[in-house]
Amino acid sequence: MNSKRSQELYEKSSTLLPGGVSSPVRAFKPYPRFIKYGKGSRIYDVDDNEYIDYCMAFGPLILGHANNAVAEAVSKQVFNGTIFGAPSELEIDFAELICKHFPSIEMLRPVSTGTEATMHAIRLARGYTGRKKIIKMEGGFHGAHDTVLVKAGSGALTHSVPNSAGIPEESTKNTILVPYNDLNAIEEVFKANPGEIAALITEPVMGNTGPILPKDGYLQGLRELTTANDALLIFDEVITGFRLSLGGAQKYFAVQPDITTLGKIVGGGLPIGVFGASSEIMSSISPSGPVYQAGTFAGNPLSMCAGITTIKSLEKINYDDLNSLGELMRTSLGKVAQELKIPHQVQGIGSLFQMFLTAKPVENYADALTCDSAAFMKLFHGLLDEGIYIPPSQYETSFVSTAHTSADVEKTAEAFAKVMSEVLM
Ligand SMILES: Cc1ncc(COP(=O)(O)O)c(C=O)c1O
Dihedral angle at the C-alpha atoms of 207, 208, 209, 211, nearest 10 degrees? Predict the structure, then answer.
């Protein structure tokens, strides 16, 4: 595959952008592909190579690239103004749609990224409860802010910096880590810190160590333990919101958190984050209450417009179809690896999937570390050459969208079979 132009652009971008990229998870050796455009399930690079995309911008593009309805709505809005610095009716329409599908959210604040959403959700939880300590999962990624950048999975794990430089220990001393899927560990934390835990933050389904599912009763257990200890439960649904179902993972698993964070999908491909909760909790947010939060681009008309159009489109789709396509992918890839006798776990749920190269079922961060991530990168490169673009990390999650088809899945499974037999045997 010719990737000369990508190489040239990388050489230039490396002199201007650290590592040649604008976010570390996009980097891979020897150089990433520079993308010219995307449509539906496909992306096209500057050397005119076509790829079936399963990275899907790390999750937002549930309707595929350049969805017509979203593109039209956003184009129209551009001519009416992209930002006002004053409220617009679009924010009300957007909030109404989210509240309709997430009964645990009565009020929300739109922000510009998922990072902001979790940062402010944690500040809100601390302000509301008057407590300082936060429980978080090992391998849980909630954006790149100080409180949560401890054993944070994903990019940090891939690039071997589980804890970032530049974060004073004072910033993380109130962050307590526990393994995912282990209720006893959380019970112990509550016992050791009576009356001190403001909140437990977790993704209901882990996505940033690859997809890890909650064991039966785990999310209910989190709900019970937080309630019993007067701590808030924060579900970070930046990936799972509007992904597992219209009402996210909380609807899928029937467990209601106190605070929810959303992002990715709800921006329809434009920058977004959301945190929301009951009116009582949200009333602590400025200007109603004492917890300060602000943002120039918060609730900007373009993100609102793309989000509204995306959610309205999702109201018309059948999630069972999308999730079945995810299931088809998981079973197809599982069959491939099994036939080749390669130690593996194909994990995921709904439209999420990942091929873990380990013999051990992945139930938490420690299990994820048993994967052969060097072998995974060989797989990644082989797939790239076959025109299949998955996220460049063992510790990420791949997505199918409504634009993918069973023919795409079939082609992808064939590519996995070819590459796995060539580079992993
Ligand atoms: C679960 C989760 N929370 C928060 C974030 C941060 O979102 P953003 O990249 O929009 O800041 C991410 C990003 O991948 C995420 O996966």
Answer: 10
